Amino acid sequence: MEISGRNQIPGMVRRIEFGDVVSKVVIEYEGGEITAIITSDAVRELRLRPGDYVSALVKATDVMIVK
């Protein structure tokens, strides 16, 4: 599959916390961990399991920093 997104972070699914509507998917990558909140339907459709190798695509229109 080709995609135009350039902010791709390859990693491995560490854990999935299922919810009724959305689920939390924790992905371990070279620099640490990133957490994605996606629909539980998407988790099922992608057949995500801990240990799967995936890529997280990041698209942000705003970045906020608080200190």
Describe the protein's architecture and organization.
The structure is a single chain. This protein has 67 residues and is mainly β. It has one domain: OB fold (Dihydrolipoamide Acetyltransferase, E2P). The protein contains 1 helix and 4 strands. It has one helix at 40-46, and strands spanning 8-17, 22-29, 32-39, 53-57. Strands 3-2-1-4 form a 4-stranded antiparallel β-sheet. The termini are far apart. The model has no long low-confidence stretch (mean pLDDT 91). This is Molybdenum-pterin-binding protein 2. InterPro entries: Mo/tungstate-bd_C_term_dom, Mop_domain, Transp-assoc_OB_typ1. It comes from Methylomusa anaerophila. Keywords: Molybdenum. Pfam families: TOBE (PF03459).
Question: Major sheet: size, sense and barrel closure?
Answer: 4 strands, antiparallel
Helicity, as a percent range: 10-25%
Strand content: over 45%
Content-based structural category? mainly beta
The overall number of domains is: 1
Mean pLDDT score, rounded?
A: 91
* Low-pLDDT runs: none
* CATH architecture grouping: Beta Barrel
Count of helical regions: 1
Side by side, the strands of the main sheet go: 3-2-1-4
CATH topology heading: OB fold (Dihydrolipoamide Acetyltransferase, E2P)
Domain Mop: 2-67
Keywords: Molybdenum
InterPro entries: Mo/tungstate-bd_C_term_dom (IPR008995), Mop_domain (IPR004606), Transp-assoc_OB_typ1 (IPR005116)
Protein name: Molybdenum-pterin-binding protein 2
Keywords:
67 residues; mainly beta; OB fold (Dihydrolipoamide Acetyltransferase, E2P); 46% strand; Mo/tungstate-bd_C_term_dom; Molybdenum-pterin-binding protein 2; Transp-assoc_OB_typ1; Mop_domain; molybdenum
